């Protein structure tokens, strides 16, 4: 499995978070069997996860960066085995310009891919959501309690997954990005940044391995036709 560098593994879907199906249905140890790199969230939307070089970190709602145990449970996560190719160096480039340059250069709008950007970012703004318990509220209500963090200048790693428009709902169409500072004292789900100077690398996938929580009663019995899946995902993301 470690030789499979063109498969993106996804447990759960963003759609199942919309009505508040936030039970942890996968252990971190099982996610790491499918990759050494990834992002996700914990049971009850417990913070923001980023996996780099096989080590999983959680940025909690207090802004702390915590190492994650093998038994940490998740309702949603992505992972893959890193095999990035250098794409370009950028110097004081804004986020919108960066995304336009990347999408033009990689020409991969209709497939999944990952980006890893290492460098120095200005006015990096992130978020993390505090863990909620049962009975869970909807994604929109739970995410409304998110904490915001900002750093004027920070050096670290941006890890992003791009999902094509046709998969909007299973994932969020476009870029879904998390961040971890090199000194491990800042990170989270990226809301925005002004500029970055650093190196951009790229990895394309030709296969999405979608894993669903079929042993979870709440998921198996839920009627998603009653949910505003895309509206709530775009509002939360």
TrEMBL record:
Its EC number is 4.1.1.5. Transmembrane segments: none annotated. GO terms for molecular function: acetolactate decarboxylase activity. It catalyses: (2S)-2-acetolactate + H(+) = (R)-acetoin + CO2. The keyword Lyase applies. CDD domains: acetolactate_decarboxylase. The keyword Repeat does not apply. Pathway: Polyol metabolism; (R,R)-butane-2,3-diol biosynthesis; (R,R)-butane-2,3-diol from pyruvate: step 2/3. It comes from the Bacteria. One of its GO terms (biological process) is acetoin biosynthetic process. It is an enzyme of class 4 (lyase). It holds the Pfam family AAL_decarboxy. Keywords: Acetoin biosynthesis, Decarboxylase, Lyase. Belongs to the alpha-acetolactate decarboxylase family. This is Alpha-acetolactate decarboxylase. It comes from Levilactobacillus suantsaii. The lineage of its organism: Bacteria, Bacillati, Bacillota, Bacilli, Lactobacillales.
């Amino acid at each position: 499995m470690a030789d499979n560098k063109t498969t993106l593994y996804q447990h759960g879907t963003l759609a199942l978070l919309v009505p508040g199906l936030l039970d942890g249905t996968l252990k971190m140890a099982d996610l790491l069997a499918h990759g050494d790199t990834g992002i996700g969230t914990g049971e009850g939307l417990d913070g923001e996860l980023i996996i780099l070089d096989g080590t999983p970190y959680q940025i909690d709602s207090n802004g702390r960066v915590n190492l994650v145990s093998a038994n940490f449970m998740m309702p949603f996560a992505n992972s893959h085995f890193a095999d990035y190719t250098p794409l370009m160096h950028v110097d004081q480039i804004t986020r919108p310009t960066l995304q336009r340059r990347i999408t033009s250069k990689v020409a991969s709008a209709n497939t999944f891919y990952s980006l890893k950007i290492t460098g120095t970012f200005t006015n990096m703004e992130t978020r993390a959501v505090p863990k909620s318990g049962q009975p869970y509220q909807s994604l929109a209500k739970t995410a409304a309690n998110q904490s915001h963090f900002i750093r004027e200048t920070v050096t670290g790693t941006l890890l992003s997954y791009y999902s094509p428009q046709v998969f909007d709902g299973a994932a969020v169409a476009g870029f879904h990005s998390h961040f971890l500072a090199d000194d491990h004292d800042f990170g989270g789900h990226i809301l925005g940044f002004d500029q970055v100077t650093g190196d951009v690398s790229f990895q394309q996938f030709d296969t999405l391995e979608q894993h669903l929580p079929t042993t979870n009663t709440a998921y198996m019995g839920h009627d998603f036709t009653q949910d505003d899946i895309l509206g709530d995902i775009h509002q939360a993301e």
